[in-house]
Amino acid sequence: MFEWLQNTGLAMWINISPWAYPTFLTAHGLGMAVVVGLTAMISLRILGFPGHVSLGGYRGLMPILAGAFCVNAASGALLFVSDAVSLSQNLSFQIKMASVVVGIVVLWAIDRRVLKPAVEAEDAVAVSADGTAALGASGFQVSASAKALALASILIWWLSVIVSGRLVAYLSPGA
Q: What residue spans define the domains of the chain?
């Protein structure tokens, strides 16, 4: 199957075109930068930095994060097609893909267990007489398990995705 995929017209075009592979690789890198950056921002806020900024507001970053992930998935699929046989046998690539799956689950859990309740708590805060409410006035507290999820998303998931992704080129079968 991977041999067939690698021999499709699309795969050959990606390999022959002077612009296709570099363009998809650039899109993949930019998408990764946005996903990692936003994940780090959200995770650091869950850990308490900066503590004066409303946690619920970070939920608004999730659609941007999802869009950047879609760019990564599409560009990654195109990059995979161009070398499907070798990549399918590459342990680093397999670790990267497993880490991505775990990372999606972790981000989903952070959204459901932390960001959504934070938004709900902040929405429930009564507005003062002058029409304002202090940031963080909801008293929403982040649980220890949510902080552990945040640390996992930064330290374990992203470190694993980034390092294993970089090692794909150096640890390919037959290299």
A: 2-123+132-167
Q: Residue 166 phi/psi, 5° resolution?
A: -70, -35
Rounded to 5°, the CA angle 55-150-114 comes to 40
CA separation for the pair 45, 16 (Å, rounded)? 45
Between 157 and 3, where is the model more confident? Answer: 3
Helix/strand/coil for 51: coil
| Nearest-angstrom CA–CA distance, 161 and 103 | 9
Distance CA 104, CA 76 (A): 15
What is the value of pTM for the model shown? 0.85
d(CA 65, CA 161): 16
What's the one-letter identity of residue 111?
D
Closest CA to 109 of 49, 160, 46, 53: 46
Task: Give per-residue pLDDT as tens, 83-104.
Answer: 999 999 999 999 999 999 998 9
For residues 174 and 9, the model is more confident at 9
Q: Is the pLDDT of residue 108 over 70?
A: yes
Q: Are 109 and 157 in contact (CB under 8 A)?
A: no
